[in-house]
Write a structure and sequence with these properties.
The chain is α/β, with parallel strands linked by helices. Strand 12, helix 17 and strand 13 form a beta-alpha-beta unit.
Length: 440
């Protein structure tokens, strides 16, 4: 098929490259000419495992190209994916869908033939109905333009894998023609055995929010239990293992730490909570709001752990190295990063902060220039009084504590992601403190 992908960010670029990889001719659309030029040159402006290679391969083959002209995309494609951003609105509780409606207003007047618009952005329930009415009113093709809502379930850092080999595809639609178009565009993926759920649009819209919010609930729950372990002297790592044995629970997503961040989970939990309240599901809203409150308090919990680890030494005047800037490993995305929130808190009480990250130094520095940065792991320890692990990159898990020779005597490591095996570090002379685990 000839397809377009409108919006080239963390969602649109991997999706465009993946659609080219499964055999489609793809044109990506973005308003940023400099970004379009980089993409056409095969240069990837975001970090995702496997994406630079995929992008370079298919821009070179001619199967994938990018433009700033939405009319060019309308004339070229028979199916249009909408992958623009839906950030949290000014009220802090709902999605700002302005870019979605803006894309439809620009695209629809050029739709002269029957086609399918496939929304992938995360939106408030009811958006598909409104977008359909707008598109069909503005398009010369009128009701021959179908709209499907097909929410993405990408994990940043795994976007290519999750697009090419997703665990499910959701299709919220109202016509047989729309279902046929979606089955055609995803045919290679469906043929590999990936299940497809064909639903009404409102179910598809709710499904994405429900999935991400459940992950937020799970993370907040295990963080609350970690706090109980901290108070009682218990071991959260063992509790996770014990709970994870139960097939009704599972250990996936239950790593205690300093909370969830990024461009999806925080806004999806907020918006889903607001939707519950607007729909009159007040008990659901109370439950979801509790998960938010636990997540919002994680920086304070981490600061308490660091304070206890330092003993009678105040953070003020300390040289603190924060390992991690990205909100999670595998990406250079620093939106709502718990690691950077913790770095801010440390600086506010007088710490001198140096941030290390394997991939996100450039993006973090652009948003937070007040910190010192390095992408050299041993150099990040120069003159440090304490190291705080804030993003669970494999680089830190695989580091050999015996080789980090520049750290001063009595090295102190505060693992706020409970991700390290502490014993090799302790054997090398480090004092290690972890959330929800006994410190030594």
């Amino acid at each position: 098929m000839r397809v377009s992908v409108i919006g080239c960010g963390h969602l649109g670029i991997p999706h465009a490259a993946a659609m080219a990889d499964i055999g489609h001719e793809v044109i990506g659309v973005d308003v940023d000419q400099a970004k379009v030029d980089r993409l056409n040159a095969g240069e990837c402006p975001i970090y995702e495992a496997g994406l630079p290679e995929l992008l370079a391969r298919h821009t070179a083959s001619g199967r994938l190209r990018f433009t700033t002209s939405i009319r060019e995309a309308a004339d070229f494609a028979e199916l249009h994916f909408i992958g623009v951003g839906t950030p949290i609105d000014a009220d802090g509780r709902s999605y700002d869908t302005g870019q979605v409606y803006g894309a439809i207003r620009q695209l629809a007047p050029h739709l002269n033939q029957p086609c399918t618009i496939v929304g992938k952005s995360t939106v408030t329930v009811g958006t598909t109905r409104q977008v359909t009415a707008l598109a069909q009113r503005l398009a010369p093709a009128g009701t021959a333009v179908d709209v499907v809502w097909n929410p993405e379930f990408l994990r940043e850092g795994h976007a290519v894998e999750d697009t090419l080999r997703p665990d499910r595809i959701i299709a919220g639609l109202t016509t047989a023609e729309a279902e046929k178009a979606l089955r055609t565009v995803y045919a290679p993926i469906l043929d590999a055995g990936v299940p497809i759920f064909v639903t009404d649009p409102q179910t598809a819209e709710l499904a994405k929010g429900a999935a991400n919010t459940f992950l937020g609930l799970k993370i907040s729950y295990i963080n609350a239990v970690a706090d109980m372990c901290q108070a009682a002297g218990g071991d959260i790592a063992q509790i996770v293992e014990i709970l994870g044995i139960d097939p009704r629970i599972g250990s996936g997503g239950m790593r205690p730490g300093i909370g969830y961040g990024g461009g999806c989970l925080p806004k999806d939990v907020r918006a889903f909570t607001a939707s519950a309240r607007q729909l009159g599901a007040h008990q659901a809203a109370t439950l979801l709001r509790a998960a938010e409150e636990i997540n919002e308090a994680r920086t304070d919990v981490a600061m308490d752990l660091i304070t206890r680890a330092l003993g009678d030494r105040p953070v003020e005047g300390m040289r603190v190295t924060v390992w991690g800037a990205a909100f999670k490993p595998g990406t250079n995305d620093v939106r709502e990063s718990p690691a950077l929130a913790l770095a801010h808190a440390l600086q506010q009480v007088g710490g001198t902060v140096t941030v290390h990250d394997p991939q996100a130094v450039t993006t973090a520095m652009a948003r937070n220039p007040q910190f010192d940065y390095t992408d050299d792991l041993p150099a990040s320890l120069d003159d440090a009084d304490v190291v705080v692990l804030a993003t669970e990159w494999p680089d830190y898990q695989q580091a050999d504590p015996h080789t980090l020779v520049d750290f001063p005597a009595n090295p102190l490591l505060v693992d706020c992601r409970t991700t390290l095996d502490p014993e090799p570090w302790r054997a090398a002379g480090w004092a290690v403190h972890q959330l929800g685990r006994p410190g030594k």
